[in-house]
Amino acid sequence: MVYYHPGKVLEIFSPEDKDVKSSDSSTQAVVETWDENVITFLVDSRLVDKIKVGDVVLIDYNPVSDKAPRPRMVIVKILYGEKAKKTWEAYKEYFKKRPRIRAQIPVPQPPYIG
Fold this sequence. Notes:
By secondary structure, this protein is of the alpha+beta class.
């Protein structure tokens, strides 16, 4: 099975940015994912010159390897136009309709003093 996660770019951290000091040449993007998480992801080097704030992107969530089951978490595609709009709206609509489970945390009762 193949997994990708859509998100919307909120900020970009490029080593070319005057407000960023970098130890390497990689670029990262802060992304709001469809399920309302905010995570910073690596931008694939082939997309560095194309990605912008507000873009809808796909993040590769496939395992790094069979031995390392953690996801790659790399932005691999930028979606534009109707495709971007429809993808974002479909996932956000699914998220709204998803049942919410709230943990019931018991509140300790103070001991009776009578």
